[in-house]
Amino acid sequence: MKYCAVIGNPIAHSQSPKIHQSFAKSLSLSLQYDKILATSDTFAEEVNDFFEQGGSGLNVTLPFKQQAYELADKVTERAELAQSVNTLWMEQGRLIGDTTDGEGLINDLKRIDFPFRNCQVLVLGAGGACRSILPPLLENQCSIALINRTKANADKLITRLKTLGELHYFSESFQPNLIINTLSESGANYLQQFFPQGLKGCDVYDISYGERAQAFLQQAKKMQAKDTRDGWGMLVEQAALSFKQWHGQLPDTEPLEAEHPQEI
């Protein structure tokens, strides 16, 4: 039996064990998948203990993705761009880190038929979640604008990633085809502030899911957004990519994507 886990704080709400165990069952693999609660002070020790006890793979959720990036001995190119890690494993005695968040988002946008390639995309936020999704969006020739409470933080991110494609701070002349919210709060306020005319013709996506995405997506609906979706599919898709890294098989995501824990 393989042993995997997810580490974060808080962690009780995590759907990762359900998702990974469902994947394992569908592929007839024997898997134990646990939740690990950590603090910033105990994170490194918990990671080391997990792998010393024979762990195969560790998912990292908030607020430790940057700390995981810093802890890893080696990271993938996309994790380096994002400066964020959500997937850890050992390779020849070295701790390897990757981020599957961005590819998970792209796969879900394709699944739900949200146009994004060569489109104008507004991303709300400039934190770790935003860093993970910007590179793959830019690789798909998106023209991206950022809005963030602290503009200086967004400007730093723009400076670091602008060689990848068209990335700038939001101006009122920017007319998005797609809005992606990476903020835990205040996203709904930004919609009201910057789009008083409404959101007709614009798709709206929140990378969180269920209750945490509700206020933002309900506001988008009130403003007549073309379509609204939360990030349940992204969670399932990024989990499938982590699963493949650890077990060598890519699971079918459709059955789980149909089991949304809470419809908006």
Walkthrough of the structure:
By secondary structure, the chain is of the alpha/beta class. It folds into two domains: 2-99 and 233-257, Rossmann fold; 103-230, Rossmann fold (3-Layer(aba) Sandwich). Helix content is 41%, strand content 20%. It is built from eleven helices and twelve strands. It has a six-stranded mixed β-sheet with strand order 2-1-3-5-6-4, sandwiched between helices. β8, α7 and β9 form a beta-alpha-beta unit. α1 (16-26) crosses α10 (232-247), α5 crosses α10 and α8 (187-194) packs parallel to α9 (211-222). The longest helix has 16 residues, at 232-247. The chain is globular, with a radius of gyration of 18 Å. The N and C termini lie far apart (37 Å). The relative contact order is 0.14. NADP(+) binds at residues 77, 125-129, 207, 231. Shikimate binds at residues 14-16, 61, 86, 101, 209, 238. Residues 231-256 form the SDH C-terminal domain.
